[in-house]
């Protein structure tokens, strides 16, 4: 009688009415997960088990697929290479030797016209920077204009005067300038020319006001931002913002910071554009040439362009995020600045976060009192405007730093 375990005939006649090539009731082929034949008779077998297959195909629960053909997959099955429901992964026409073959998946996408999946943009309802999000920390806002608002981050890079630092900006001074509208870039093509001009003008006005405040405390602003395009394929397409940090003037003027930052960039493969004409041309052209897609970019400024900064020469660094420089470490600006300030432990904002909301409110109140005289008139702000109460009533808020 047949040896049912290996389905090898012993030369004896079968019993119980079963033929020599028919397995007993309950037997299931381990290659295709179908009953009715032994594993060595399976049409998927070619001398050995196909490379990359599991001990059972998807859906292999010992039940029939109901299609009457062991080469057809069970109902609901989807090929892992081309995502088609019409064949098992072992029979995929785009597979070479393995169901996990990366090049096979690329060929399948190319043949079917399927595009590589891209990240879903972060919408206003999920965005910590949008004022309409009720989860925002309203108490950190220190100024609201027509196009932007200014707020303290959850974990400032710099220490405040109350932390034992001999000099510094009241309340710390590290702030975010955030567009009120949900936009991934100051160069977003979704902005009309008028809206883009108003947004960038107010951003520049807030930078000048911050520069004046910092100068009163013998500091210089260092700011940076990352602009993303709506069609980009990276992990997050969210809400752009500019981070501004006060840096001691003597450290900047005595350290030739332009060369320092260029050197730090080269260490990690970043080649900055720092000549004024090159930077100006990029932003005047809207971050693109001709019909090109708007480029992703990283912009950093030491001081404020067009403003006298004493011994400090205002400098703008631009890094166009495409090609070999498309992948940008968003932590790099803060990590590098923390090291230059000799406070590497403050590279992680979580380490710097205040323990209680009361401490955050006190810090925001200190900074707001110092900043208000310099920001009077920017975006409609003036000395009589109580933007804190307005923020509470209007649902205004500000995110934490989201890992920056």
Largest beta-sheet details: 7 strands, antiparallel
State the CATH architecture of the largest domain. Answer: 2-Layer Sandwich
CATH topology of the largest domain: HIT family, subunit A
Count the beta strands.
7
Helix- and strand-based class? alpha+beta
CATH superfamily of the largest domain: HIT-like
Taking all Cα atoms into account, the compactness measure Rg is 31 Å
User: What proportion of the residues is helical, as a percent range?
Assistant: 25-40%
DSSP strand (E) fraction? 5-15%
Treating each run of at least 4 consecutive H or I residues as one helix, how many helices? 9
Order of helices and strands: HEEEHEEHHHEEHHHH
- Kindly report the average pLDDT value: 72
Please tell me the total number of domains.
2
Give the termini separation: 73 Å
Flag low-confidence runs: 1-19, 46-70, 96-102, 116-120, 382-404
Q: Based on CA inertia axes, which overall geometry fits?
A: elongated
CATH uppermost class of the largest domain: Alpha Beta
Strand order of the largest sheet: 1-2-3-5-4-6-7
Description:
Pfam families: CwfJ_C_1 (PF04677), CwfJ_C_2 (PF04676), zf-CCHC_2 (PF13696). Residues 317-374 form the Cwf19-like protein C-terminal domain. This is CCHC-type domain-containing protein. GO terms for molecular function: nucleic acid binding; RNA lariat debranching enzyme activator activity; zinc ion binding. Residues 380-392 have a biased composition (Acidic residues). Helix 2 crosses helix 8 (357-375). The model is unreliable at 1-19, 46-70, 96-102, 116-120 and 382-404 (pLDDT under 50). The termini are far apart. The chain has helices at 102-112, 193-216, 249-255, 257-267, 276-284, 332-340, 349-352, 357-375, 387-393; strands at residues 141-144, 148-151, 175-179, 219-227, 242-248, 297-302, 315-320. It is built from 9 helices and 7 strands. It is of the alpha+beta class and 404 residues long. The protein folds into 2 domains: 16-117, no CATH class; 124-393, 2-Layer Sandwich (HIT family, subunit A), CATH 3.30.428. The chain has a 7-stranded antiparallel sheet with strand order 1-2-3-5-4-6-7.
């Amino acid at each position: 009688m047949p040896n049912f375990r290996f389905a090898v005939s012993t030369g004896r006649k079968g019993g119980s009415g079963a033929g020599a090539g028919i397995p007993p009731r309950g037997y299931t082929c381990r290659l295709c997960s179908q009953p009715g034949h032994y594993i060595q008779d399976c049409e998927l077998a070619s001398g050995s088990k196909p490379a990359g297959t599991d001990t059972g195909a998807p859906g292999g629960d010992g039940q029939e697929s109901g299609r009457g053909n062991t080469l057809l997959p069970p109902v609901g099955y989807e090929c892992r290479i081309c995502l088609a429901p019409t064949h098992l992964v072992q029979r995929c026409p785009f597979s070479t030797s393995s169901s996990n073959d990366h090049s096979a998946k690329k060929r399948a996408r190319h043949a079917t016209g399927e595009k590589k999946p891209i990240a879903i943009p972060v919408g206003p309802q999920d965005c910590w920077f949008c004022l309409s999000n009720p989860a925002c920390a309203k108490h950190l806002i220190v100024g609201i204009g027509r196009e932007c608002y200014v707020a303290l981050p959850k974990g400032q890079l710099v220490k405040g005067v109350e932390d034992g630092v001999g000099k510094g900006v009241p309340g710390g001074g590290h702030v975010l300038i955030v567009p009120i509208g949900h936009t991934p870039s100051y160069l977003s093509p979704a902005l009309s020319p008028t809206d883009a001009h108003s947004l960038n003008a107010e951003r520049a006005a807030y930078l000048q006001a911050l520069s004046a405040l910092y100068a009163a405390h013998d500091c210089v602003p260092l700011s940076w931002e990352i602009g993303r395009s709506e069609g980009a394929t990276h992990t997050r397409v969210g809400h752009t913002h500019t981070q501004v940090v006060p840096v001691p003037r003597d450290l900047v003027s005595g350290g030739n910071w332009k060369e320092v930052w260029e050197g730090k960039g080269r260490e990690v493969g970043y080649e900055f554009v720092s000549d004024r004409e090159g930077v100006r041309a990029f932003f005047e052209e809207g971050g693109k040439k001709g019909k090109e897609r708007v480029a992703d970019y990283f912009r950093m400024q030491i001081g404020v362009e067009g403003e006298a900064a004493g011994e400090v020469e205002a400098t703008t660094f631009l890094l166009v995020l495409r090609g070999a420089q498309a992948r940008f470490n968003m932590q790099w600006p803060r990590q590098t600045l923390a090291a230059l300030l000799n406070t590497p432990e403050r590279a992680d904002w979580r380490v710097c976060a205040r323990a209680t909301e009361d401490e955050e409110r006190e810090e925001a109140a200190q900074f707001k009192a110092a900043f208000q005289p310099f920001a009077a008139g920017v975006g409609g702000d003036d000395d009589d405007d109580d933007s804190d109460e307005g923020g509470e009533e209007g649902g205004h808020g500000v995110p934490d730093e989201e890992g920056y």
